[in-house]
Amino acid sequence: MEGDDCNFPPDSLDDHSQRGSVASSATLSRAQDVLIYLCGDSAVHLSVEGLGSVSVQELGRSVREALHIPESAQDAFAFWLSSPLLELQLKLRHQPYKLCRQWQDLLYRFTEASEEDISQDEPCLQYRRNVFYPKAKELQIYDEGVLRLLYEEARDRVLTGRYPCDPEHWTALGALSLALDEGTGLDGQQFTTTVREKKLSSFLPVHVAMGSGGLFSTLRGKSSRQTGLEQNLLEEYRKISKSDGNSPEPTQLLHQYLNTCHTLPYYGCAFFVGEIDKPAQGFLQRAKRKAVNVGICLEGVYVMDVKEKHVLLGLQFNELSWDHSYPEEQGDSHILWLEFDGDEDGTPVNKLLKIYSKQAELMSGFIEFCVELKSASEGGAAAEMDGEVSLSQQPAGQDGSSKNGRGGRRGVLHRQSSVLCSRVHSLNTISYVDNGKEIKRLKPKRAASFFTRQASTYSAVQVTESLEQS
């Protein structure tokens, strides 16, 4: 996301980004109006002098003052340039106006968008959660305004399906949203009236409320399905209103919402787009690809099915090795390679997943940066003896930090039966064994195996022809 490596994750689900944020003017030295958009469809209106050279750091001071962000929480947020085609988290020294002028070049480089779509795309400037802000620090925030900003973004991710949820999660989160919007004192009739006026999709994920998810049979009528969803939501809402003799404070509800989101391993991820190979359905069938979102955060890497809204593969950094390769010929794709442990008929094997994406290099660099942050953070946590693998102690700098966050033999991966679990059986992966007799492995510009190479080796993968055809 952030930094000179230019990690720019696109977010095609952001439906607020058709609005231009940065005014263009021939006289940029004069005061210009700038809109900084927030999640939840609100904005901060600023009048900025010298717009052409103003930095994120300077804008940040003005926005924090306008929103009354306390100094203790100022690192929780960052500025983003966002459109339906691409998202970019900015560094403090970046100048938004200049990046806007380069927007089309970024789209050509990092997206598969058509020339027409690129010519019509326009970014907006957003103030959103910092992808590198640790979840542990969120638990220490008690300012209602800050919690509201975090809540609005998390709610948007849940409703749009960016954060896949199991029924118990989405129902609990929907009830908390209703309690935050309407209070906890609604009776049954008021509840039904409110939910139907605002629509279920204001509280539950759209694919659930509209019946397009795979969890409900299409044979059930829309009316009965929605009645069932409303009833489940009402039961969860009543638990909130009866949980205490007094109505819970908004900060309590906000904390509860965020705490529930923290149980989702991909909360706070930066998201990239890509494609993976579908398993062949027949010997002669031509291979097809499936669209995926790739979420990367301080915890690990998560590959999610865009259509089905569930996790295909979730790996913590100590469970994977990775690299990327560049196209060798015209028409080839950039590829992010993920390697992890598996088994074939009881035999331990190494599995390779290929993710085709113009953002493969960005994802690889982002993983590397997160591994370094996590490694340094864990070292600080051990010194503090705080009892947690803490991500709250982010280092001031990463130079000289340990790079041994991966490599070595990993333990067996643990899975669970929910939308959060990995579905390795449904992936078209390349399997090979350590001695390399089953299939030709990667030619080193690196150690002989992902497992044994040193963490400082990041050169591009060179793939043999037989490996590509497998």
TrEMBL record:
<dbReference type="GO" id="GO:0005886">
    <property type="term" value="C:plasma membrane"/>
</dbReference>
<dbReference type="InterPro" id="IPR057096">
    <property type="entry name" value="KRIT1_FRMD8_FERM_C"/>
</dbReference>
<dbReference type="InterPro" id="IPR011993">
    <property type="entry name" value="PH-like_dom_sf"/>
</dbReference>
<dbReference type="InterPro" id="IPR019748">
    <property type="entry name" value="FERM_central"/>
</dbReference>
<dbReference type="GO" id="GO:0090090">
    <property type="term" value="P:negative regulation of canonical Wnt signaling pathway"/>
</dbReference>
<feature type="compositionally biased region" description="Polar residues">
    <location>
        <begin position="390"/>
        <end position="404"/>
    </location>
</feature>
<dbReference type="InterPro" id="IPR014352">
    <property type="entry name" value="FERM/acyl-CoA-bd_prot_sf"/>
</dbReference>
<feature type="region of interest" description="Disordered">
    <location>
        <begin position="384"/>
        <end position="410"/>
    </location>
</feature>
<protein>
    <recommendedName>
        <fullName>FERM domain-containing protein 8</fullName>
    </recommendedName>
</protein>
<dbReference type="Pfam" id="PF00373">
    <property type="entry name" value="FERM_M"/>
</dbReference>
<dbReference type="InterPro" id="IPR019749">
    <property type="entry name" value="Band_41_domain"/>
</dbReference>
<dbReference type="GO" id="GO:0009952">
    <property type="term" value="P:anterior/posterior pattern specification"/>
</dbReference>
<dbReference type="InterPro" id="IPR035963">
    <property type="entry name" value="FERM_2"/>
</dbReference>
<dbReference type="Pfam" id="PF24522">
    <property type="entry name" value="KRIT1_FRMD8_FERM_C"/>
</dbReference>
<feature type="domain" description="FERM">
    <location>
        <begin position="32"/>
        <end position="378"/>
    </location>
</feature>
<dbReference type="InterPro" id="IPR051594">
    <property type="entry name" value="KRIT1/FRMD8"/>
</dbReference>
<dbReference type="InterPro" id="IPR000299">
    <property type="entry name" value="FERM_domain"/>
</dbReference>
<feature type="region of interest" description="Disordered">
    <location>
        <begin position="1"/>
        <end position="20"/>
    </location>
</feature>
